[in-house]
Design a protein that fits this description.
Oligomer: single chain
Order of helices and strands: HEHHEHEEEHEHEHEHEHEHHH
Structural class: alpha/beta
Amino acid sequence: MTTFPNSGKTIRLGRVLNPADGRAAVVAYDHGSMVGVIPGNENPGDMLETLAEGGADALMVAPGIARTYASVFAGRGAPALIVRIDWWNLWRGEGQLPYKEGSGRLIATVEDAARLGADAILIYMILGMENSEFEANHVETIAKVAHDCDKMGIGCIIEPMARGALSEDPLKPEYIALGSRMACELGADVLKIEYTGNSDTFKGVTEAAFRPILIAGGPKTSTLRDALAMLRGALDAGASGSFIGRNVFQAENPRLMMQVMASMIHENWSVDEALEALNG
């Protein structure tokens, strides 16, 4: 069993990371807070129930979703609750409101998350910002959040991403490894990390970190095999599971996709075994 700096964190993060194997199948479901309605989040309550039935160890949502659909997280066997406490305008797509320069703010405190019943919070760490003062202030905020998590006994999950104007290649393995190590040293208990594209380069990322890594899913992949191969490759490189969103809740059968990914994580299914289950 993975242990953490205090008993509160050990208990709460034991609801996120399965104590039997130290792994977790988590779904990121906070997209509406930054990009609005997309396929799969039109009816949040129904989808959250579906993902819980599919075996999600935890669900990551924005504060308003946590408040409105608290029943999904209540009771024995319910998924753990992870609350995103920041908001950014980096992710807007074509046709949405433009922005001059990507920027973010806290939308909730660690104490707010505790009142909502959260087992952990999640916060971005955006690296490579052209405005070095903004980046330094941003890191200061993250360090304070990690300190607040220690005081409250709540898990601190940090998501480093090289998305500043100086980051010419966000998926460059060296950038991802840098963010992983920085997040650990700032106080992360768990990391949400982008996949580098192959298991060999991702191994350098897991070796740079000393906390469990859960891979982010990124945009929906073009094929099922691509999504499953991404997860398998990360696990083979030392990841502890997934924090995948769109490749689960936008799947043809989200409940089955959730079950299959959970089996890959906790039962070490291969890509072929997963495809066989998905295809009937």
